[in-house]
């Protein structure tokens, strides 16, 4: 049976954490003295009230989670954070519609970056900071952050980590998961601080630097300007490209390589090599197309292509050019990049390069098996054997990913969205890429133009994609709720 007492206890603690984040944004509202002070105060009171309510119902609970409890905790944590995250938007009247507010909140916490707000500069600074902070928290994971700062809150944390972590296989820095979480968050904070310093060095003020650093490190892509701030500054474009790329690397691998000054370890990782090759190959194709079809000079074509390719492969979603004017072949490259994503164990979305590497090796082994039927062909990734259970999981994930894409495209088309935009919306949402553009020359639409049904479909895909499909789909099956 599901242990709802411990689940309520954990949810109450997580709501206190969300209220604390709102207090930080309230401080930002006081600094700028705008009209978002009262909305944050009301949101904090409501969040704390429900936090106490959940804690009360979870009193005297044993600090122990079953595997089934862990999936429920993780799913409800993301759902509740998104629900309570709508309050600053709704109470302030900045997003009057609950559907739109929920879409914006989910997009933030899942670090997707899709936004229904067309004029972000009209928002007060506290609300802008809330959007960016929600992405930064969701980058590595809400529950994973809780494990780092309050390890005693989440019992059975290894199971929780397995339910929330990204990638086909998870490596740990330390035998104790709480220490592992602390080290990974240290890497995350270091990347964010370094990115902020570079942005400010190249011309951003402190508020822009902090906001863009958070959304860059989280590969979320929320912006606080109506016009792309990177367009007129090559230095900022290259800086954003570098830090998006770094944030797409497996953080465990990054820690071991950089902290021990053994950068060659990066090249020993088959996933990192594929990730680098994939980025450079896609950028080369797009660059050639821009020079041939759009008449860009070499440097501008290189800068535009590498920025856009890294932005979408890492599922950040920044845009430095009008991609609608690009050749259709570049759209295909960017679509594939969004679907594949970067490395597992990073802040990015998509299928993850590790899974693609495994698929390619399985295909290679299958062709060799056809030539040598009696041969025993092990599947190894970085010297580690991939057992049959991981291969079956890979097949199940890939199949589910493609079926979800097809189903969501069909629903969007039934909701009167054209084919090009339906594909773009489905991939961007499920891969948590969320670019601010739509690939359509005939019917160029914004996220705010979508019908409500399409927004709910996109919101569901964001949550499913962030938790890598099975954590949510499992709890929707009747078998999950059976006692045995």
UniProtKB/TrEMBL annotation:
Tell me, in one coarse class, where this protein mainly resides. membrane
Residue spans crossing the bilayer: 12-31, 37-58, 70-95, 136-162, 183-202, 240-258, 274-293, 332-360, 394-414, 456-476
Read off the InterPro entries from this record. Answer: Cat_transpt, TrkH
Bilayer topology: Multi-pass membrane protein
Identify one Pfam family in the record. Answer: TrkH
What domain of life does the UniProt record list for this protein's source? Bacteria
**Would the keyword Transport be found if you checked this record's keyword annotation?**
yes
Q: Where in the cell is it found?
A: Cell inner membrane
User: Which keywords label this protein?
Assistant: Cell inner membrane, Cell membrane, Ion transport, Membrane, Potassium, Potassium transport, Transmembrane, Transmembrane helix, Transport
Provide the family line: Belongs to the TrkH potassium transport family.
Name listed for the protein in its UniProt record: TrkH family potassium uptake protein
Species assigned in the record = Hallella faecis
What taxonomic classification does the UniProt entry list for its organism? Bacteria, Pseudomonadati, Bacteroidota, Bacteroidia, Bacteroidales
